[in-house]
Amino acid sequence: MNVGSLSAYKIWLAQYNTQPTYSGKYDMWQYSSKGSVSGINGNTDMNLSYLGY
Known about the structure:
This protein is about 0% helix and about 30% strand. The chain has strands at about 10-15, 30-35, 45-50. The protein has a three-stranded mixed beta sheet, with no helix packed on it.
């Protein structure tokens, strides 16, 4: 895959580690699928956004 061809897109990286090992550019990082949010039953995805939302 030519990762450079993705530069026009926002990248949402899903990698379940304490730190991402992906060295390319990404705008959001999903670091877990086993999070907990008050009011939601069951596991939730946990993400960090580096965008200005």
